[in-house]
Write a structure and sequence with these properties.
The chain has one domain. It is built from 7 helices and no strands.
Length: about 150
């Protein structure tokens, strides 16, 4: 994951936002034990929905790509570094390179321009790409939360 340019301040702040959402979820359910992948995924989706609601009251997003558009894959295809950020099922042989590239691009956007920006972009992509991006985020965020003793 070192190959992805990072903006640590904004991504770290968004990881803390996910941690806060997880704490809220755990408080409501009464389960303060180990946090599951599903709980992290739900927290990310919750944040994305909150952000979408706030955006609806503001200006429309600048991304004009229709939901059905998948960015073409560069001629070289995914690299080993790309595969590191993809969910396990997209690393498998035979996975669609266009989907791999789209998810990797969204992960890069998250590190360069912030998680909220990348979540907005993902919302305009086909459901397969949006879901795979959320899975990639869980794979990235969950170890960070454990490292910071937030879960």
């Amino acid at each position: 994951m070192d190959a992805i340019p990072q903006s640590p301040e904004s991504f770290a702040a968004h990881v803390e936002r996910v941690a806060a959402a997880l704490e809220t979820q755990a408080g409501r359910s009464g389960e303060m034990g180990a946090i599951s992948r599903d709980a992290v995924r739900e927290a990310i989706r919750s944040i994305a929905e909150q952000e979408a609601e706030m955006t609806d009251d503001r200006q429309p997003t600048t991304d004009n790509a229709p939901p059905s558009v998948v960015t073409p894959v560069p001629p070289t295809g995914p690299t080993t570094q790309t595969l590191e950020v993809l969910p396990e099922y997209l690393r498998a042989e035979g996975a669609d390179p266009a989907v791999q590239h789209a998810v990797e691009s969204l992960v890069t956007e998250a590190f360069q321009h912030g998680l909220m920006h990348a979540l907005k972009l993902a919302k305009s992509r086909p459901p397969l790409i949006e879901d795979a991006f959320h899975d990639a985020l869980v794979d990235i965020v969950l170890p960070l939360l454990k490292e910071r003793h937030r879960v």
